[in-house]
Amino acid sequence: MSSTPTNGTAIDLAGLSIGRGFRPERPPALVDGERRAVKYLRLSVTDRCNFRCRYCMPDEGVAFEPRAAVLEFEEIVRVVRAFTRLGITRVRLTGGEPLLRRDFVDLTRMIAAVPGVEDLSLSTNGFLLPPIARELRDAGLRRVNISLDTLDPGRFRDLTRYGSVERVLEAVDAANDAGLGPVKLNAVVIRGYNDDELSALVRYAHAKRALLRFIEFMPIGVDGFWSDRTFMSVDDMMARLADDFIVHPLRGFAHEAGVVGGGPARYGLLTPRGGGEPVEVGFITAVSQSFCSTCNRVRVTATGGLQECLAYPGQLSLRDIMRQGGSDDDVTAAIERALFQKGPGHQFDPRGGGVRTCQTMSVTGG
User: Fold this and answer.
1) CB 360 within 8 A of CB 297
2) What is the spatial distance between Cα 97 and Cα 1, in angstroms, rounded to a whole number?
3) Is residue 146 part of a domain?
4) Number of separate domains in the chain
5) Does residue 240 lie within any of the structural domains?
6) Torsion, CA 64, CA 65, CA 66, CA 69, rounded to 10
7) The CATH number of the domain where 133 resides is what?
8) What is the CA radius of gyration of the chain?
9) How many whole angstroms separate alpha carbon 212 and alpha carbon 75?
10) What b-and-e string marks burial along 293-313, b requiring 16 or more CB atoms within 10 Å of the CB?
């Protein structure tokens, strides 16, 4: 990849020739190469994390990016502004653990103030959330997703190699109290590890007025941890849940099920056997039932790499464009060109022999 500063010349990055001021004729909405509308930006603000989750990082950890390589606040705002100019209104802040970013409340306020940002949300492990939840709400944050794979304290310590589940449960309460709802809980289901807790997680989420989403374990990150033995499909999850609930057919994605959000989960109702209020639960089926044909999101890493798909590590550096003098128009045009190259989907399904294990999620951005 090569590039030169733009003073009337062109930037050539990853095979993209982008002249200063270049503005292609824009469609009504930002679309990728498969004509899918892109409406949702997942923006990593740090690659650092205070947990070392087994499915995310190897035992020895990962080498973090030099701080100078990570986007500055002003650069992050420029990236958000470029995407809102293209029609994106939903922004989710991710990591690593985003709350490790110094002055994160100030960054949240800056992003919330960008014209066009209508829904600003956060994905977090929750450990650092309780003391600043209200500050974040006042700064413009609207919703939070909290990772909660297990309710068992010992299992939690083993899985994350750090911390306590009690602190994460405090974060759920703090988010509710601050008005950062509906709080969504994300549980990666690993066969033989936490698949015996599915019903308990449903009951906990319902008691906390939170929306639980079960996530199929994806072959991303740590070689050797994912296997056919640890993978559990959504069909198998539903069969397990059927012991305690009447499992109703999935109703569709968030907008089809009347759920706040724009992510890939499909939602359905679980009615407790023996009576009780139905519980809304989401399922993210990246492996067994690919949702690539409806993918509406794009990721930007903490170092400014635009990543069109989790399955493919190739990235266009928006950071390089900005630091080499590129204008906002250059950034916007680069985004459009890169997304036009996005392929039809990933190759995660183990049954087709197409499993692809990629860089760790802490690097990519969750």
Assistant:
1) no
2) 29
3) yes
4) 1
5) yes
6) -160
7) 3.20.20.70
8) 20
9) 33
10) eebbbbbbbbbbbbbbbbbee
Helix H or strand E encompassing 174: helix 165-178
pTM of this prediction?
0.85
Would you give per-residue pLDDT tens digits along the chain (366 residues)?
444 443 333 444 444 444 444 444 443 478 776 667 778 999 999 999 999 888 888 777 788 999 999 999 999 999 999 999 999 999 999 999 999 999 999 999 999 999 999 999 999 999 999 999 999 999 999 999 999 999 999 999 999 988 799 999 999 999 999 999 999 999 999 999 999 999 999 999 999 999 999 999 877 655 556 677 889 999 999 999 999 999 999 887 765 666 777 677 889 999 999 899 999 999 998 776 666 656 777 899 999 999 877 766 668 999 999 999 999 999 999 999 888 776 665 555 554 454 455 555 555 555
| 275 is a domain residue | yes
Question: Is 287 domain-assigned?
Answer: yes
SS3 category, 212: strand
Question: Which DSSP string corresponds to 28-72?
Answer: SS-B-TT-PBP-EEEEE--S--S---TTTS-TT--PPPPGGGSPP
- Of 13, 81, 71, 74, nearest in space to 44 by CA: 71
Hey, what are 307's tokens?
Answer: 């990543």
pLDDT at 293: 58
Alpha carbon of residue 59 to chain centroid: 23
The DSSP call for residue 283 is E
Number of H helices, E strands in the chain: 11, 15
Q: How many CB atoms lie within 10 A of CB 26?
A: 14
Largest CA distance in the chain: 72
Q: How far is CA 308 from CA 32, 47, 86, 297, 337, in A?
A: 9, 18, 15, 8, 11
Residues 6 or more apart whose CB falls under 8 angstroms from that of 265 comprise 213, 253, 254, 259, 282, 283, 284
Q: What b/e sequence results for 44-69 when a residue is b if at least 16 CB atoms lie within 10 Å of its CB, and e otherwise?
A: bbbbbbebbbbbbbeeeebebbeeee
Cβ distance 188 to 55 under 8 Å? yes
Residue 180's domain spans which residues?
36-309+317-325
43, 82, 328 from 116: Cα distances, Å: 16, 10, 16
